[in-house]
Predict the 3D structure of the following.
Amino acid sequence: MRKKIVAGNWKMNKNFAEAEELVGAIADELDEKDLACEVIICPPALYLEMASDYAEESILSIAAQNVSNFDNGAYTGEVSASMLGEMEIAYCIVGHSERRKYFNETDKMLAEKVDRLLDYNMKPIFCIGEQLDERESGNHFDVVKNQMTNGVFHLNKDEFLNIVVAYEPVWAIGTGVVATPDQAQEMHSYIRGLISEKYGDKTADDTTILYGGSCNAQNAVTLFANADVDGGLIGGASLKADDFVKIVTSF
């Protein structure tokens, strides 16, 4: 049976004191609850060690927001999978639309990042999704298929079982616009169908597919009620403990 997950992507927000206060508040609130999902916090890289310390004493898991596609070497400013692995980081986001857009990350780079993470026993949260013009032109299914094919379908079945997929319609990220529950379910079902064609029904049924795109405390219950929506990759709403906890408890 596939895992339900809610992951909070803090992006480039919070100073150290604010970050420590936030992760502490989330841990305190959630540790008192009987949860139906795994909860992942994705803080900026500078705060990973602090967040990991909290995770050791709570139900939280920790994810990095990015990783280098290189093992090591003269790559100033990069963080390798081996470095994250030594910190016992469980997950790492790969291919977020902001990385694709602002840092020109290619499918080849993202496939390499996936491989590096798996080499060090971390689970990639692999992001896919279409731009507004791609949806309006009716190419959204082809875009998502190509991203899956080029980014993760080179893996064998056992390797793929470590992948968490996050569908993020780019037109709904940070805009306040949310895919309707029907739109979200339609795409999640399509993605699961692609996985089934590649790896078989059981692997597809065991794969967690998250929704990302202006998911918040008000719409999470409706989105998570869809059969193929297994949780969310939460952006802005993860920066307030109360809002994030409401989302986590929406199952």
Summary: The longest strand covers residues 123-128. The radius of gyration is 17 Å.
